[in-house]
Amino acid sequence: MLKKIVGQALAVRILENSLKNNTVAQAYLFYGPEGCGKIFTAYIFAMAINCYSEKERRPCGTCLSCKKFLEFSHPDIMFLFPIPNFDMTISGEIKSQANQEEYQKYIQAKINHPWKDYAFSGNTEIRIDQIRMIQQKLITTPYEAEKKVIIIENIEKMNIQAANAFLKTLEEPSDNTVIIMTTTTINSLLPTIISRCQRIEFHPIRTEKIEIYLRHVCSLDPVKAKLIAKLSNSNLEKARILADENDFESLDQSIKFFQILLAEDDEEFLNWQDNTIAKAGRNNSILIETINTFILFLNDIKAFQLCQSDIVNINQIKLISKFYEKNPHILEDLDKLFYFLEDMQGALKGHVNPKLVFGHIYNTIGRYFST
Q: What per-residue confidence (pLDDT) applies to 363?
């Protein structure tokens, strides 16, 4: 199953060799950008450590140990991730029934769709209560496996009290314990934590790798696979979500925007803007994604002149060609427009009024293609 990890050949080779040679370290730190497969790899590696199958087949995914892991019910594999400030016992039991239900929904979401984010109702951290619970569980020997394995997701969200307490576990790990941590921001961690781990770097996944994955694993047709691979921006998790939802609304909205821009129809733009913002509600990430599709379309205008096989919106060649005909020299200004659009995404993240942002985008891009 380690072979199913996409675009991380070096990381996979290191982990496979450690399993084969019985040199599994006591602490690992998987670090790299979002959506590159760190957490998925941590899960597969944790499952492999205690798999009952022969070494070359680990993890098999079918033995009793693997099945328990996949159900999040293995007694010797523990999961730690940022949660709201739930009131917990020393053994890790959540006292409130409502909080228990919310936690179980999170676990079920992990089982069903491990690549998707699940939003808790409150601000999340890894807290000292969770560390104490882990320390309590590590006192005992493994119940049925060779090693106890702890997976700690997003360790950068461990608060300072928890991090200081966790250091004791890292400094004096028992021989039968393996700790696997993941982070997107290695530089934010305590140096004392980093120094006690075997670090394994994960890299952004190349677009063509994601495209192949979408075609062969998700059974998407070549056009959709290419579109989603480009939209995912090297993020396989995002690509999986887009493929599952089969949602191309942001792309459709983008095409509509450029049709309006070409027609220089200010009134229709105001209607488009109101509808787009209303559909997004308070979720600015949808609007940020819409700007991503603007960048893709402008890239297609560039590809129209330089290499038409690189065009993403291959069903919009006629529209793309009209923009190029309006300004054959646009390539000289595209970098400025890309930086501008990235600034506009930053403005949305900073909660600037979306109407101001999209109005500014409409007028700015429009100046380059006005008659």
A: 93
Could you read off the pLDDT of 75-123 as tens digits, one per residue? Answer: 899 888 888 888 777 767 788 888 888 888 877 777 776 666 667 777 8
For residue 115, the model assigns a pLDDT of: 62
Burial of residue 22 (number of CB atoms within 10 Å: 0-12, 13-18, 19+): exposed
Q: Specify the fold of 2-204.
A: Rossmann fold (3.40.50)
Residue with tokens 């579109």: 227
Q: Which residue has the tokens 């199913």?
A: 4
Q: Within 10 Å of residue 264's Cβ, how many Cβ atoms?
A: 12
Q: Which tokens in the block code for residue 134? A: 């882990």
Q: State the residue for tokens 């690549």.
A: 115
Distance CA 12, CA 1 (A): 10
In the block, tokens 């495209």 appear at 211
The matching CATH number, chosen from 1.20.272, 3.10.450, 3.40.50, 1.10.357, for 248-369 is 1.20.272
- The candidate with the shortest Cα–Cα distance to 330, out of 303, 359, 363, 357, is 303
Is the confidence at residue 36, as pLDDT, over 80? yes
